[in-house]
Amino acid sequence: MHDVNKSTGPVSTGPDVASGRGRALPISVKSLTKTYGAFNALNNVSIDIRSGEFMTLLGPSGSGKTTLLMVLAGFVRPDSGSVLFGDDEVLLLPPHKRDIGMVFQNYALFPHMTVAENLAYPLKLRSIGKSERQDRVNRALDLVQLGGLGDRGIDALSGGQRQRVALARAVIFEPRILLMDEPLSALDKNLREQMQFEVRALHDRLGITTVYVTHDQREALTMSDRIAVINDGQIQQVDPPQRLYERPKTFFVASFIGETYRLPVDVTNGTASLFGQPIKTGGPLESTALQQALILRPEMLQIADGGPGPDENQMTGTLRQTVFQGDSIVSYISIHGDHEIAVRSQHRSNQTLPVPGSQVRLSWLIQDTVILPEDDQT
Amino acid sequence: MWNKPATDTQVTHLQRLWLYILCTLVLLFLVMPTLLVIPMSFSDSRYLSFPPESWSLRWYRAYFSSAEWLQATAVSFKVAFLTMILATTTGTLASYGLHTTRARLGKYMMVLLTMPMIIPVILLAVGIFLTFAPVGLNSTIGGLVLAHTVLAIPLVMITVTAGLKNFDINQEMVARSMGASRPWAFLTVTLPQIRNSVLSGALLAFIISLDEVVIALLIAGGDKATLTRRMFLALRDEIDPTIAAISTLLIVFSIVMLALSQFLQSKK
Fold first, then answer.
1. Does B29 map to a domain?
2. A2-99+175-246 has which fold?
3. CB-CB under 8 Å, A108 with B170
4. For A259-304+312-373, which CATH superfamily applies?
5. Is A236 helix (H, G, I), strand (E, B) or coil?
6. Measured by CB atoms within 10 angstroms of the end CB, which terminus of chain B is less buried, N or C?
7. A95 CB near a chain B CB, below 8 Å?
8. Residue B243: which of B40, B33, B17 has the closest Cα?
9. Does the residue B130 lie in any domain?
10. Which neighbouring-strand residues pair with A211?
């Protein structure tokens, strides 16, 4: 009735779930465009994902990140562009011939099958014999710490267990690529954080190329090798988490990841000045028609005792309020009248806090000085 | 309890008495015409009369010993069975297609396919007669099945669409990502989970075909006459209590089928 064997292409029937290493494939996406009516879901998107890499697509809802994932999976056909798995163009391949594992937000487990039957589903499609099937199901269950639960119904599982079954089912047939669409967002906070480590550990063990979609920046920063920030159907920046955080390339990236405050700066002849006072930067700046802004994060600023050090910038402001948060203290400071920024400092027990209303000096490192043109959209 | 509110705001049963009476009357009004037939079928009289003066099973004997009636019954059940198969298959596929499509045309297709429910059956019957005449489908089992399928598809689509609304289509996508072709994913993942909706749609299709008379009057003649058609004509020509006996049997059969359909739907 179904000739999946003929149609699934090169499917390995190797015995070991944990031996995916070496089978991972790089993904190369070029100039993808997809419109729904007047809406640009993907606008000329290109991205290269390395073999075995954990790549996160991060963006707000409606940004196009899920559309991109669905194009990779084969459920959405783009208007134009190209998607390579390794050297193979897969754009015209239907999903079942792409050899991908998928995990959805709501798990999408088959409720009319037991846990073991769920896991065996992709193996049956590959005509793997019963004894080997059982073997691999058991090993996959062990892999996600669900050993012995194979006979359970899906209804009898907790949220975290369901998530693990979904994960195991997505990798049991040793796909070349693993795609995940907000897989942890239905879990509560503690479980979510635990699963972040488990998903990452599973990825490391299997060495499988993984594309992970989320709108949760903390999740993205925690799990990824690299993060692609997407907004309005366009990729804003692709970088490792730390670089993305420290060196945002666009205003959107700066404001979407972490807590940011911005102060308007004037850029003339490659140098910036903040309310008339020059500030040092890592290199010359480009002048743009758009208003430029200094991007500040609360933990990068320090309340200084004296003048600026050689590698520092400094500004002065009026302390409005300090908030004690246990491990840290947040001071809200107004700069040049109505611009408010926050400074986060470590809590020390013998610390005396400045009195609200007093003048304070704030210093930050030149290397932390990021100046970006403001988008009109933000 | 009868006239003593348990709380300040509770409406007592006595205050609601008029509502109970009204509801009972409405329910009686709904079922009486159907139920009247049952005592009439056990009458000993040569004519349809109510209430019967004496009781007998003679009209049931008359039915089971008449070759004509039995042949009509066979035609009806054959047509109903084939209609059920055809309408359930096409209706389920149509519901699935319209449920998963993103095309804007889908909305209009749904209206088009459920149209036979809104159009007066007599118009449909005339249209079908005129369409069938040149291709010789009138007075054939095939023609009756096609005509009844038109009537039954909307019912199948309504129940199956309701079933699909409770189904998470991501499951099918996951199955496809794991290597199942789309038809196979539908058969192994989707269909088992909307099974009860499909079955209850099938039962409805069967009943619709079995009970249908207007189309059958126009297009089912000769030895392809259905039970309902023969009953209608018998009612016109000779007032014969056999009809009451057949009606009673049909009522019992339909109620069992409907109850089964409701049961299947309520299970999921």
1. no
2. Rossmann fold (3.40.50)
3. yes
4. Nucleic acid-binding proteins (2.40.50.140)
5. strand
6. N
7. yes
8. B40
9. yes
10. A55, A179
- Residues of chain A by 3-state class (helix, strand, coil), percent to 5: 25, 35, 40
Out of A2, A95, A110, the one facing B171 most closely (by C-beta) is A110
Q: How are the residues of chain B apportioned to helix, strand and coil, as percentages rounded to the nearest 5?
A: 75, 0, 25
The two beta strands, A328-335 and A312-324, are antiparallel
Q: Quick one: closest CA in B to A109, which residue? A: B171
Task: Write the residue in A2, A106, A122 that is nearest to B170 by C-beta.
Answer: A106
In order along its 378 residues, chain A shows pLDDT tens digits of: 444 443 333 444 433 444 444 568 999 999 999 998 888 899 999 999 999 999 999 999 889 999 999 999 999 999 999 999 999 999 999 999 999 999 998 889 999 999 999 999 999 999 999 999 999 999 999 888 888 888 999 999 988 899 999 999 999 999 989 999 998 888 888 888 888 998 999 999 889 999 999 999 999 999 999 999 999 999 999 999 999 998 888 888 988 888 888 888 877 777 777 887 778 777 767 777 677 888 888 888 888 877 777 888 888 888 888 888 888 888 888 888 788 888 888 877 776 777 888 888 888 888 888 888 876 554
CATH (domain of B203): 1.10.3720.10
Q: Write out chain A residues lying below 8 Å of B183, CB-based.
A: 2
Rounded to 5°, angle at Cα A194 from A193 and A195: 90
What type of residue is A352?
Answer: T
| B195 within a domain of the structure (yes/no) | yes
Pairing of strands A177-181, A209-214: parallel
Going by C-beta distance under 8 Å and a sequence separation of 6 or more, which residues neighbour residue A345? A302, A303, A328, A329, A331
Pairing of strands A80-85, A27-36: antiparallel
Asked if B173 lies within 8 A of A73 by C-beta distance, the reply is yes
Complex prediction ipTM: 0.79
Number of domains in chain B: 1
Structural domain for B129, as ranges: 66-237
Kindly state whether residue B2 falls inside one of the protein's structural domains. Answer: no
Between the CA of residue A51 and those of A23, A85, A87, A169, A209, what are the distances in Å?
Answer: 9, 10, 12, 21, 5
